[in-house]
C-alpha cells in the first residue's frame, strides 16, 4: 500500500471515528440528564451511518465514544507544543499551543456539560485528558533541555496544564460566564506561569 492510500485510509478511519463520536454525544444530549444510560449502541451506529460491528471496532463503550474528541485532542498536545517556534518562551508556547488545540473549534457547551455532569463520562474525559501528560512532558523537556526521567519539572508542569484545562472547562460552564473558552483557558493556564506572565504586564 502506497503512502497516499495509507493516508486516505487513515483519514477515512478518523472520519468514521468522529462520526460515531458526534452521533453518540448528540443522542445522549437529546435524551436529557440520564442520556448516557438511555442511548443504545444500535442507535449510535444507525445515526453515524455504520454497522454495530463497525462501532465495536472503534469503541469499547459509549463513554469512550462520547469522549473520543477529547482523547484525540490530548494525543496531539505534545506535537502542538513542539510546533511552536523554538525561541518562544515556555509559558507563551504552552499557552498558545493549548489554546489553539482546545478552542479551535470552541467546545460545545451542551456536550461539555453532559460530559462533566455524568460521572462515567467525566471519568472517561479525565482519562482522555491524562493522555496528554506524557507527550506534553516530553515536549516540555525537549524545549527546556531537561531530562524527564530525572527532573520532575516536565511531568509536574504537564499535569498542571491538563488540570488547568479541566478547571477552565468547569468554570466556563458556570451560569452567567460571558467569556469565550479561549479567555477562560488563558486565565487558567496563566496560573501555572505567574512569574513569567507578570513580566509581560
UniProtKB/TrEMBL annotation:
Keyword Transcription regulation: yes
InterPro entries associated with the record: Homeodomain-like_sf, HTH-type_TetR-like_transc_reg, HTH_TetR, MftR_C
Naturally occurring in which organism (per UniProt): Streptosporangium amethystogenes subsp. fukuiense
Family annotation (Gene3D superfamilies): Homeodomain-like, Tetracycline Repressor, domain 2
Segments passing through the bilayer: none
PROSITE patterns noted in UniProt: HTH_TETR_2 (PS50977)
Residue intervals of the HTH tetR-type domain: 14-77
UniProt keyword annotation of Transmembrane helix present: no
Name by which UniProt lists this protein: TetR/AcrR family transcriptional regulator
UniProt KW keywords: DNA-binding, Transcription, Transcription regulation
DNA-binding region: 40-59
